[in-house]
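dude i think i finally got it to work??
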Amino acid sequence: MPDPASTKPYLLRAIYEWCVDNGYTPYLSVVVDAQTRVPQEHVRKGEIVLNIGPVAASRLQMGNETIECTLRFSGVAKDLLVPVAAVSAIYARENGHGMSFEIAKKGAASGADGETAATPGKPKDPPKSGGKPALRRVK
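look at this
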């Protein structure tokens, strides 16, 4: 039986719809890598936060593998391509409610759901203890 599709793109679309339905502004936090097409001058510490609300983003397409849209940066429209695997969080700007995701480390094999798979012969790292995941608001 084939592996089921990742739940991540479905959850991203659901949180996006929840934000829009409640009048919130959906933001995406993205870990930038070689496959991510975003304006590099706006990337900070390997990450970029994008306003993907209906007012800010045009031609938004949230697929199972990629998120594509056109956003304005400093008044200039830019076409963006974000792999779903690079999205670390989606949340509402107004209250911070949303969902964060684990990002597979570079060079590690990843499964269909975006979780890091252990390499043969090496034990899997123990889970980190302490606190719950936190989202931070970037202005």
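Helices lie at 8-21.
im so relieved honestly
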